[in-house]
Specification:
Blueprint lengths: L8 H11 L4 E4 L6 H15 L11 E4 L3 H17 L4 E4 L6 H8 L4 E4 L1 H9 L10 E4 L2 H6 L3 H9 L6 E6 L4 H10 L4 E4 L19 H12 L16
Parallel strand pairs: 1-6, 1-7, 2-4, 2-5, 3-4, 5-6
Length: 238
């Protein structure tokens, strides 16, 4: 329905192995199509299983470094899960846990979580990972940079050894490689195509003399019918 008929390189490379149930190590930068690459095999495996999801015992787990990314993943995942009449829940800090616990109690099949809140719920016995069949670690290098590796290690240790593990990361430094060595069984490694060379882009720098002049430049750059993205220094300015 969204017009997605041709697989991105990271999807075409990883899907045959991930759909076959193998552990997969995928290298891909943000925007490469990784979310669908791991969501499709995850939902397929759960959808084809005869097992039922018990309260507080999800059957799949996706770890993300930030709640913004967790929400983005969940948006991609929800229509796929609904096709199999499965439920998803996002689990992250900074908000009341009541809603998250209620969805877990109703039998959420797939949990998309940041490590901190997930561990909180595990310690409170509001969540158990003993029924997880598929575990995804997304943006593993970013989680390493943010100091989440000890939490991620403890979480993966709480999942069944026989489960499938899909790990996606733009880079593989020593910390990420430790996760691969410890929790992945004979993983298949796939890397996406190389980034476009800089020669395919045109860069412009605008020197402005005042805030008012900058506002006019920003308005000009942001107007029109084409797609564009603007990055700002602060939330308030955005």
């Amino acid at each position: 329905a969204e017009g997605k008929e041709t697989a991105f390189p990271v999807q075409a490379a990883t899907l045959p192995d991930s759909l076959a149930g193998r552990d997969v190590l995928g290298r891909g930068r943000t925007g490469s199509g990784k979310t669908l690459a791991f969501s499709l095999p995850l939902v397929t495996r759960l959808g084809e299983s005869d097992e039922r999801t018990e309260p507080f015992h999800p059957r799949a787990l996706i770890l993300a470094p930030t709640r913004e990314l967790a929400n983005q993943i969940d948006l991609v995942l929800q229509p796929l899960a609904r096709a199999y009449r499965m439920r998803t829940v996002t689990v992250y800090g900074g908000v009341s846990q009541r809603y998250q616990v209620n969805k877990l109690e109703r039998g959420a099949d797939i949990v998309v979580a940041t490590p901190g809140r997930l561990q909180d719920l595990m310690r409170q016995r509001k969540l158990s990972l003993d029924s997880v069949q598929v575990t995804v670690v997304d943006e593993a290098d970013q989680m390493s940079d943010m100091g989440f590796l000890p939490e991620v290690t403890a979480i993966l240790q709480a999942t069944p050894e026989a489960g499938q593990v899909l790990l996606f990361s733009a880079t593989l430094d020593n910390d990420v490689q430790q996760l691969v060595d410890k929790f992945m069984s004979n993983p298949v490694s796939h890397g996406e195509d190389e980034p476009a060379p800089v020669s395919t882009m045109t860069h412009h720098v605008f020197h402005v003399r005042s805030a008012g002049e900058k506002k006019e430049v920003v308005e000009a750059l942001a107007s029109g019918e084409g797609k564009r993205i603007l990055f700002t220094r602060t939330r308030s300015y955005a």
